[in-house]
Design goal:
Elements (H helix, E strand, L loop, with lengths): L4 H4 L2 H14 L4 H12 L3 H9 L4 H6 L14 E2 L2 E2 L6 H17 L4 H4 L4
Antiparallel strand pairs: 1-2
Helix pairs in contact: 2-6, 3-6
Pfam families: DUF2200
Organism: Pilibacter termitis
Protein name: DUF2200 domain-containing protein
Length: 117
């Protein structure tokens, strides 16, 4: 069975797009990094390594040190699909990250983006 195209996109290709989207709306690269680290458990060193290795999104999320258990609190629509209803685990994780970056670009407070109680 052929993998979905989203699996083969490299994190090193989408990361600059996340930064550009955030910066166009007055947010920062540091905030994008904070979101990625919160969601995946990567830190600056391990994330830099993933970028250098040009990991595909499938491997990037499979190798995530600790996918945040509060990710289940992420709700909403990305690309016309409700993220909480996506059945494929990797696709859902990618869309969770997309949703968080969208929230950042829309000006939402970091505490709300990171689902801090």
């Amino acid at each position: 069975m052929k993998k979905p195209r989203i699996y083969t996109i490299k994190i090193s290709d989408v990361y600059p797009a996340y930064i550009q989207k955030a910066e166009r709306k007055g947010r920062t690269k540091a905030e994008v990094d904070e979101i990625i680290f919160w969601l995946t458990g990567y830190n600056q060193e391990t994330f830099s390594q993933a970028l250098q290795e040009e990991l595909e999104l499938e491997k990037f999320f499979q190798q995530a040190p600790l996918f945040n258990p509060n990710a289940c609190l992420i709700k909403g629509v990305v690309c016309g699909v409700r993220v909480e209803d996506i059945e494929d685990e990797i696709t859902q994780k990618v869309r969770f990250l997309d949703k968080l970056i969208d929230e950042l670009a829309k000006g939402k407070a970091m505490e709300k983006i990171l689902r801090v109680a």
